[in-house]
Amino acid sequence: MTGATINGQTVEIEVIEADGGSGASPTPAELTLIAALDGYLRKHPAFAEAYPGARLTRVDSNRMLRDTDEGRFYLRYDHAEGTTEFWGHLAEKPALDFERGIAQVKVDGR
After folding, report:
1. How many CB atoms lie within 10 A of CB 49?
2. Does pTM top 0.90 for this prediction?
3. pLDDT in tens for each of the 110 residues of the chain?
4. Is there a contact between 84 and 62 (Cβ–Cβ < 8 Å)?
5. Cα separation of 51 and 64, whole Å?
6. Coil, helix or strand at residue 24
7. Which of 12, 18, 71, 76 is the most exposed place for a label (fewest CB within 10 A)?
8. What gap in Å lies between CA 30 and CA 91, rounded to an integer?
9. Sheet strands (E) in 1-110
10. Taking a C-beta distance cutoff of 8 angstroms, is the pair 22, 1 a contact?
C-alpha cells in the first residue's frame, strides 16, 4: 500500500496486480483517473447531499480489470455518518448510478 495526494486529500492506495499480488505504486494514468472519479463524485449533487464533507481515504486499483470495466477502482469515503463505498471506471461520458454505487468518468486524452 502506498499513500498519495488526490485532490488535496491524503489517500491510501492499494494496487492489485493482474496476478493478484500487490505492492506496486499507482501509475500517473491511474492517479489521473482516481482524481477525476473523486472530483466527479464530490461535485455530484446526490453524493454531496448524502455525504457532505466526505473525504476519500482509500482506493484499490484492480489491474486485473481494464480501466473501462466496472469495478476497476474501489473508492472509500469517510463522512460524518460513517463510511461509504463506490466503484469507478473510465467511460465515454460521466455518469453516476447512486443506488449501485458506480461512478464513471471521461478523462481527456483517454
Report:
1. 8
2. yes
3. 788 999 999 999 999 998 888 888 999 999 999 999 999 999 999 999 999 999 999 999 999 999 999 999 999 999 998 999 999 999 999 999 999 999 999 998 66
4. no
5. 30
6. coil
7. 18
8. 14
9. 2-6, 9-16, 55-62, 73-79, 82-90, 95-97, 102-105
10. yes
Q: In what order do the strands lie in the sheet with 2-6?
A: 2-6, 9-16, 55-62, 73-79, 82-90, 102-105, 95-97
Q: Which residues are paired to 86 by β-bridges?
A: 75
Contact between 32 and 105 (Cβ < 8 Å) = no
Distance CA 29, CA 44 (A): 23
